[in-house]
Structure formats: C-alpha cells, structure tokens
Amino acid sequence: MDLELRHLKTIRTIADAGSLTKAAAQLGLAQPALSAQLKRIERTLGGRLFDRGRFGVRPTALGEFVLDRARVVLPAISELQQEAVRFHSAGGTVAGFRLGGTHGPLLGGLVDRLATVRPGVPVTTFTTWSEREIAASVTAGRLDFALIGACGESPAPESERLSWREIAVDPVFVMLADSHPLAAQREIGLAELAAEAWADVPGDGCFADCFTLACARAGFTPTRVYETDTASCIHLVQVGRAAGLCRATLPPTPGVVTRPLAGTPLTWRHLLGWHPGTPAAGSAPEVVAQARAAHADAAARSESYTQWLADHRDAADPGPPGGTGGRTADPEYP
After folding, report:
1. Neighbours of 319 (CB within 10 A)
2. How much is the average pLDDT of 23-46?
3. What pTM value is reported for the model?
4. What is the pLDDT of residues 116-146, one digit of tens each?
5. DSSP 3-state assignment of 325?
6. Is 292 exposed, middle or buried (0-12, 13-18, 19+ CB in 10 A)?
7. What is the distance between the alpha carbons of residues 92 and 143, in angstroms, rounded to a whole number?
8. Which among 101, 308, 151, 333 is positioned nearest to 324, based on CA atoms?
9. How many beta carbons lie within 10 A of that of residue 56, not counting itself?
10. Whole-angstrom distance, CA of residue 204 vs CA of residue 126
11. Which of 65, 120, 78 has its CA nearest to residue 96?
C-alpha cells in the first residue's frame, strides 16, 4: 500500500483526538474500520505509530516523527490547492462577483448595485450565519468577497490573509412589537427591558458575550435568548414573545418597531474582505464603494435610524462619501 495524504490526515486526527473512538466519530468511520486502516498504515511505515492504553492513544517515537512531517506537508498541500484555485481564476478581467454574506439587508443591496453598474457580469451569493466560514471560503478561493459583521472592535476573521475594509459602524437597535408599552419611546434604556426574553441571529463572534456584559452593566441577566434565523426573530417579536436585537438598518417590517438603546451599549461593524492575491482585488475599490452606498440606502429607509443619525450627527465622524453611521472605515480608501 502506498502512503496517501488521507492516511496522514487520519494519523493527525487520531493524535488530535487522543483516542480511536473519538477519531472514528470525527472521520465518520466505525472504530473497527479505523483500527484496520491504522494497522495497514503502520505496516506501510514500518512500525507502530501509537501506544494504546486505558486512557486512549499516545504517539510512539515513530508516530511523533510521522506527525512532525504531516504537520508540514498537510498545510503545504492545502495552500497549494488554494493557490491553484486562485491561479485558475486569474486573467485580469472580472469574470463575476462571488459574494458571501451573513443574513442582512446589505448583501441584497450590494447585489442590486453591482448588477446595475455591471449588467453583463454575473453576481452569485452564498449566505451563512458563520463569519468564519465565509472568510475561509474567500481565503480558499471559493468566494471573491466577504460581507460580514463584527461586534464592537473585535478583529475580522482570517485577518492575516485577507484585506478588510470597514463599510460602516451602526448602533445595535431593539425590535419590539408595535403594541409593546415601550414602542412609542424615542429610545429605550436596556434596563427597561430586563424582564424580556430576547431573540437574536447566531454568529461565531463575541456578540453574545458583549450583550450579556451590557445587560450585567444595566443590572440584570437575560432570562432567555432565542438564537434563530432573521424571519423567526421577527416573528417572535411580532407575537410579543421576545424583544429582538437587530442592526439599525433593518428594513421597515409590519407589526414591528425598531428603537435605539440609550447610550449605545452595543455597536456593529460592517466589513468587506477579499484576498489580495486574486483578480478580485482589482475590483475591490468599486465593491467597497457600492457596499457603502448600499448601506446608505438601507439607513435612509429606516425612519428610526434616520432620526438617530440626526440626533447624534454632532458626535459622529462624517466618514467617506456614501458612508453613514457613527464611524466608517479608511477615508483614504475609496
């Protein structure tokens, strides 16, 4: 049997898991099948790779030797695959815009604007709640641009590989049913909502922790938080089951009002990222400009956000043309 990359991945998975049972579950194999595969690999490499005991498996000296080489080879092969994808897509012209985004109004606005200014260029989209998944897809060459959000000042994912520009920074608003006793207020203190259950869209950043901390500073602990998709969050708000956390750019929605939280305890940064080594990087200034214009359009459609901007204009940085919100990214970058 010749040694293959999948065998090195198997050895690494066993070592990382610390047991054949856990490794088999991660690899989607039955444990006897993994044990048989490991024995074949060991015969190919000339000796036992792991000592097995009651507390799991531990690499032998030969196993450590092989693992050291695998930790060099596997990332190199992964990088080769990513570079090959980028090389294949190279050509100096924009063949299309492959956009990845988290759920929200900006992705649709960006698609609309790109389709308008580049009517002959195809635009495709991919959405997920995971900012890391989208960033990894851009790094791997499967997407051209990532349009994501980040809480407060938290760093963007894949920041060592991707170029990022800040599109805008928004306050986080609260959604309430239009029949809610606080719905008529111009802004609402977080402490006034201490008795509410909450609804929010999941993510893999720090927003959930930041929200919990903001509630603690306001003197309470949330009784319940429903993490679900945007449509379900809106439904829970409409029926009075929860107060919802939302971006200030949330479009007008029947039965729902959005209101600023007093003191702006939470903020949300809109970010656009791309890989600097791809042809897409050449169109990045255009996409950044269109994303900022899409944000300005979304902000203008929200009456509550328009009012908030008017109330806070003196305290906000003006930002680049087309930008809105309390702060926008590099004014030098178009």
Report:
1. 21
2. 90
3. 0.67
4. 998 888 999 999 989 999 999 999 889 999 9
5. strand
6. buried
7. 17
8. 308
9. 16
10. 17
11. 120
